[in-house]
Amino acid sequence: MKKYIWFFVCLWCWLLVCVLTENAAVAMAPDPGIRADLESIFSNPPQIQGYPFQQVMEAAADRYGLPLPLVLAVARGESFFDPSAKSAKGAVGIMQVLPSTAADYGVNEKDLLDPEKNIDVGVHYLADLYAQIQDPYLTLAAYYCGCSGVDKENLTLRKDCDEYVRYINTHLRTILARAEAGVPASQVEENHFVLARFDNFLDAENFLEFLAGKLPDLSFDTYRREVVHTDHIRYQYQILAAYGAEKERTEICRAVEESTGFAFCRFE
């Protein structure tokens, strides 16, 4: 009898630990600065020019009641506007839509390679999340990790979901800065090469800000890519430098090395 009592006590303790662990995982509060960025584009969206597939995205944003900069930021961060992008988890296209999500909107996996259909499903899903959650920060988090990763009642979210929002916000800041400067994206959405790679988003973000401060005339971005291992998938954050006719890659590398002391430019 004592053995059975001990078994149930242990089982209860294990369940309690599981519940506490699950609750603890959804414990981060949204960053106030990022929240302000997101709220500003809902109340006062800027004029945007020149992004790939912008007319399609603008039409979808109007159709589903979302600000265009938010849609652009998600598309830019998810795929850099690549219609053929596919993740190890099966997400497809510009908005990186899972086939299971697309099926909920009557779209099959093959059709997700069509930019218009992919954008329509992705924006529709993002809008439905916003209608349900009513918070732009948690909506972005849920787009990546599902509603289970956010706590609408307590306005908190899981760490990995928060990292995704921070990552997308770097793309939003780029879009907003260009809009404020009146620079059409078509003038700066050029070829990119990899300067550096980081396993930690905070390190990548800090280095990106460091580069922007040292070399304000050059264009840098961060883009996360999947690194697939045998038993898990992790994300690697790349620091990208844009180049074109005016600035060759070797010149950019030289400027980076002279201004920062870092000599690890990488060509791919």
Features:
Lysozyme, single chain, Alpha-Beta Plaits, disordered N terminus, alpha+beta, 2 domains, 3-stranded antiparallel β-sheet, 10 helices, 268 residues
Topology:
Elements lengths: L1 H24 E3 L3 H12 L10 H11 L3 H12 L19 H6 L10 H19 L2 H10 L4 E2 L4 E3 H23 L9 E8 L2 H14 L5 E9 L4 E11 L5 H12 L8
Antiparallel strand pairs: 1-3, 2-3, 4-6, 5-6
Helix pairs in contact: 3-6, 4-8, 6-7, 7-8
Short description:
The chain is an alpha+beta fold and 268 residues long. The protein has two domains: 29-167, Lysozyme; 190-260, Alpha-Beta Plaits (2-Layer Sandwich), CATH 3.30.70.
What do you see in this structure?
The protein is built from 10 helices and 6 strands, in the order αβααααααββαβαββα. It is of the alpha+beta class. It has 2 domains: 139 residues, Lysozyme, CATH 1.10.530.10; 71 residues, 2-Layer Sandwich (Alpha-Beta Plaits), CATH 3.30.70. The strands form 2 sheets. A 3-stranded antiparallel sheet has the order 1-3-2. A 3-stranded antiparallel sheet has the order 4-6-5. The chain starts with a helix and ends in an 8-residue tail after the last helix. The relative contact order is 0.11.
Task: Write down the overall mean pLDDT.
Answer: 86
Please write the string of helix (H) and strand (E) elements. HEHHHHHHEEHEHEEH
CATH topology of the largest domain: Lysozyme
Q: What's the level 1 CATH class of the largest domain? A: Mainly Alpha
Rg for CA atoms = 21 Å
Tally of structural domains: 2
Percentage beta strand? 5-15%
In angstroms, what separates the terminal alpha carbons? 67 Å
Instruction: Give the overall silhouette.
Output: globular
What level of helicity do the residues show? 40-55%
Number of helices: 10
**Care to count the β-strands?**
6
Biggest sheet architecture? 3 strands, antiparallel
Give the uncertain stretches in residue-range form.
1-24
